[in-house]
Amino acid sequence: MKDSDTAAVRNNNPPGKSQSVPLDCCGGLNNVDYSEMDLTPMKELLKHIDFHDSSFCIAVIAIIFNPLFWNVVARWEHRTRRISRLFGSPYLACYCLGFVIILLNVYRSHSMTVAMKAQARWEVMDRTDVFYTGVAFMVVGTLLVVSSFLALGFTGTFLGDYFGILMDEKVTGFPFNIIENPMYWGSTANYLGLALIGASPVGLVLTAIVAVAYKVALSFEGPFTEQIYQERSQRHKHD
């Protein structure tokens, strides 16, 4: 008997027939034993993080608060024009909100740095290759943030659309031709680089929270910004 025939008999299948593997309703293997997954690296990482540390909690609050703040304030301005009337100009109002956002982001970065310094380093990350990988992330992140700001300008970067300061056309040049929302993901790359350079497990967790916060913010910002430009297009058609 051939080896293939022996295998077929062992599996109670006729020769030449492959054994069918049961799939779940989503097309995945339903007999995968997830208990066999090696969670040791994740457990080791979490062992080096004190989730009850005050500096960690403050950093998390700053991370979540920032995009929530500028989205709520900008939408309120778009609906009421209160800030523009208060400052007498939509441009001045946008500059003031942008300055506040910059201060909030500086404080967020400071709070994350404090949390990283307050908690333990992880010897697994404390290596030369990890350090230089972190440097590379920070270089790329800075490039994305700076080039994005230069392409959009101050009002384009700091929600000028919500103040009625609309751009003539969509920006499609670098870095928008290689990645969507380069300002947000460049900032995330900077934080990831900082965590790697500092061999900081808590930095990795905080960076993940930054990414999630940005992802949630974009799910609201993207459609609302498109709505603003659609409204302008419809007004132009009526005119």
TrEMBL record:
HAMAP family: PLMT. Residues 1-21 are annotated as: Disordered. Catalyzes the three sequential steps of the methylation pathway for the biosynthesis of phosphatidylcholine, a critical and essential component for membrane structure. GO terms for cellular component: endoplasmic reticulum membrane; mitochondrial membrane. S-adenosyl-L-methionine binds at V139, V140, G141, E221, G222. The gene is PEMT. This is Phosphatidylethanolamine N-methyltransferase. The lineage of its organism: Eukaryota, Metazoa, Chordata, Craniata, Vertebrata. It is found in: Endoplasmic reticulum membrane; Mitochondrion membrane. Belongs to the class VI-like SAM-binding methyltransferase superfamily. PEMT/PEM2 methyltransferase family. InterPro entries: PEMT/MFAP, Phopholipid_MeTrfase. Residues 9-21 have a biased composition (Polar residues). Residues 1-53, 75-86, 156-198 are lumenal. It is a multi-pass membrane protein. It comes from the Eukaryota. PANTHER family: PHOSPHATIDYLETHANOLAMINE N-METHYLTRANSFERASE (PTHR15458:SF5). The keyword Amino-acid biosynthesis does not apply. It catalyses: 1-hexadecanoyl-2-(4Z,7Z,10Z,13Z,16Z,19Z-docosahexaenoyl)-sn-glycero-3-phosphoethanolamine + S-adenosyl-L-methionine = 1-hexadecanoyl-2-(4Z,7Z,10Z,13Z,16Z,19Z-docosahexaenoyl)-sn-glycero-3-phospho-N-methylethanolamine + S-adenosyl-L-homocysteine + H(+); 1,2-di-(9Z,12Z-octadecadienoyl)-sn-glycero-3-phospho-N,N-dimethylethanolamine + S-adenosyl-L-methionine = 1,2-di-(9Z,12Z-octadecadienoyl)-sn-glycero-3-phosphocholine + S-adenosyl-L-homocysteine + H(+); 1,2-di-(9Z-octadecenoyl)-sn-glycero-3-phospho-N,N-dimethylethanolamine + S-adenosyl-L-methionine = 1,2-di-(9Z-octadecenoyl)-sn-glycero-3-phosphocholine + S-adenosyl-L-homocysteine + H(+); 1-hexadecanoyl-2-(4Z,7Z,10Z,13Z,16Z,19Z-docosahexaenoyl)-sn-glycero-3-phospho-N-methylethanolamine + S-adenosyl-L-methionine = 1-hexadecanoyl-2-(4Z,7Z,10Z,13Z,16Z,19Z-docosahexaenoyl)-sn-glycero-3-phospho-N,N-dimethylethanolamine + S-adenosyl-L-homocysteine + H(+). Its EC number is 2.1.1.17, 2.1.1.71. It is an enzyme of class 2 (transferase).
